[in-house]
Amino acid sequence: MKDRLFIRLKSDEESLEWGLMTHEESVPKFSEQGELLLDDMIALAEQAAQNEVVLLLPASRVRCFNVKAPTRNRKQLEKAVPYILEEQVLENVEQQLFALGSINASGMVAVNVVDKSYLEDVLERLKNASIEPDYVVSDASCLPLFDDAWSVLEHDDSILVRQSANEYWSTEADMLSDLMSWNLQTQFEENQTVSQAVRIYSPDENTNLLAGIAGLAIQKMPVENSFEWLCSQFNYSLLNLLQQEFSSQKKHQVNLGQWKMPAIAAIALIAVGFIYLISQMIVLNQQKNQYEQQILTSIQQVFPNVSDVNTGLIQVSNRFSTLGGDAASANSFMLLLDKSLAAIDPQTIKVSQLEYLSSMAQLSFDVETSDYSTLTAAQNKLEATGMQVEMRNASESGGTWSARISVGVKQ
């Protein structure tokens, strides 16, 4: 699993905390973390460019609703929900983003509402710092969900609370007991049932949060690093606020339709180059014709008139430059790939998920093998070729070791 950069806007909305989470160990951990003013976000640009980015907004900025879906058509639902919630939201619905979750078995849809101008301003500030998030969620939504208890996190600048799948909010410590009592009473009046238990996660083992509410079962769950713990609870099922006009616009996704042919050419270059060079390493020469035919078939999807492999590879290399690369970057890719595969024994190591970053002249790929010593031996052999080598996310599962290896030219 790739590393993930978490950025959480603090309640003062002028500063943030960040952490780079790695999954190299069994429990996700921050390899780096810190705090910055929003005006200094540019310091995170390099990490944001290389990793998936998750932005956590203050829960006070995100309101939660659950409504009966009048239709299962997504486009129609996006139009209908704002007017279903118009009286509850109070503000002009045209100025609010209504982000929708999936429709559950009972026909209910989770809705998160956030002010458009606020979200637009946050995303613009991030963009000016060369940071584009993949996910934007309420920080309180990351709290774990339990059927028999609420979750509470005591953090440095706020208290986060999660009542149910789509009911989460934040408050200051001195208001928590009153708000919790009010919510419990409201839940009882509406449903005639109420949770009487809460799990409190806190760096303070002796925390007195909610001690004054009679009849409430409290389970204290000490956490060493509250922000790290919160980010470790993130999962892809959370409601992503990047919807509708705010849908993610990562650089590699922009104008994909407009650049369809160059994009296909780049993909073909990587796939063709990988297959072609692997074919040269295979001891069984009788398979060579089969691989060349696969290469030619891939090339002809982009260049139908090409009839031989060598001419096709030249055309693919030339087309690669239309994506921002040049002949040198294409040659750099082929050189790194050639050296990498020459140093790796295909009988003991499986190579997959090839990725080339032309701006850094860096080639990355996933490898799998039966033991860790084979991984380190491959790393040493790659380094012996004179390349700069980095191995990340080494882990073992079911008797198979996997890792991500990045190679580049030594500076």
From TrEMBL:
Q: How does it sit in the membrane?
A: Single-pass membrane protein
Question: Pfam families from the entry?
Answer: GspL_C, T2SSL
Compartment(s): Cell inner membrane
Matching entries from Gene3D superfamilies are given as: 3.30.420.370, 3.30.420.380, General secretion pathway protein M, EpsM
Q: Looking at the record's lineage, which domain of life comes first?
A: Bacteria
Segments spanning the bilayer are: 259-278
**Record domain GspL periplasmic: where:** 255-408
Locate the GspL cytoplasmic actin-ATPase-like domain: which residues? 5-248
Entry keywords, A to Z: Cell inner membrane, Cell membrane, Membrane, Protein transport, Transmembrane, Transmembrane helix, Transport
Signal peptide (residue range): none
The family note in this entry says: Belongs to the GSP L family.
Instruction: Briefly state the protein's biological role.
Output: Inner membrane component of the type II secretion system required for the energy-dependent secretion of extracellular factors such as proteases and toxins from the periplasm.
Kindly provide the name given to this protein in its UniProt entry: Type II secretion system protein L
- Species annotation: Kangiella aquimarina
Q: Which taxonomic lineage is given here? A: Bacteria, Pseudomonadati, Pseudomonadota, Gammaproteobacteria, Kangiellales
Gene name tied to this protein? gspL
